[in-house]
Amino acid sequence: MIRAPRFWTNPPDRPGALARLLSPLGALYAGATARRVARAPDWRAPVPVICIGNLTAGGAGKTPVTIAVLERLAAMGVAAHAVTRGHGGTAGRGAAPHRVALSDDSALTGDEPQLLAAFAPVWVSADRAAGARAAVAAGAQAIVLDDGFQNPGLAKDLSILVIDAETGFGNGRAIPAGPLREHVSAGLARADAAVVLGAPAPAAVTLARWPEIARLPVLRGAVVPRAIGIDWRGLRAVAFAGIARPEKFFATLRGLGVDLVAAHGFADHAVFAPRVLRRLVAEADAAGATLLTTEKDAVRLPPAFRGRAMPVPVHVAWEEAGALPDLLTPLFAAR
Q1: Does 301 lie in the same domain as 177?
Q2: Which end of the chain has fewer CB atoms at under 10 Å, N or C?
Q3: What is the DSSP string of 181-241?
Q4: Are residues 81 and 151 located together in one domain of the fold?
Q5: What is the pLDDT of residues 143-166, one digit of tens each?
């Protein structure tokens, strides 16, 4: 996947000349999305379906929120299964959904399913309804969709939109003129709640810029490193990340007090060639530094390199501890 164009992050009142030029194509893209989501669902599951989605092309923080929902459901005693497309993998493209094993290669499943599989059973399926049927047949008491907000295949009981506080909805235009998968007004109208992830100051800017978000219940939080017993302060490190916004990862490391000798960003879901990895390892060794990466990147590394790069695990820290339980509990009250 290519890196998002810089002009996508421009403010809506200053979208840039290229965004204006591409806006007719964006209108066609948003129109196609609107027609697709207007279609009646293929199937309604006999268990609650919770969709974690966004309105932009990647990088909002859906997977950490999905993990947070899976952890909360487990704490509630609900046997939830995750269903996902498995971006970048070959599994699930045919008729039969694929149940993810921790031993699977990310080339088969994609990277996010490997992360989710540490918390719940995961099904990879381009056909979300087929994936949900397989999960229910295997005993799922709830389905959590990692992405799928714009996919009409499966009826949803709760749709949660994840919004990056730093970028919001970018320049407010649809792909390729901007980052949006659909118009903001249309997406918010179908959502049941919003999660705004990021520091208070940029979150306030995003909520002021897009006041219609406040019509929904808004949960606030931040993606932060999990406590794993490491004192990061002063640690010399070379970092690399192939995610939608690598600079978010590097900023997190600096915030922990890591002495970041070098930082290398790659395209989202990048496949790392061995020569690139050898260069990164050599750079870290020459600097007497630790090689750090994201959890999502770590699962895509060839086995020979996994011991050379330390993944930094993250989770969502909520501003209000009870906000997520309050959102989920009503789904199961009458069941």
Answers
A1: no
A2: C
A3: SS-HHHHHHH-SEEEEES-HHHHHHHHHH-GGGGGS-EEEEEEEE---S---TT-EEEEEE
A4: yes
A5: 999 999 999 999 999 999 999 999
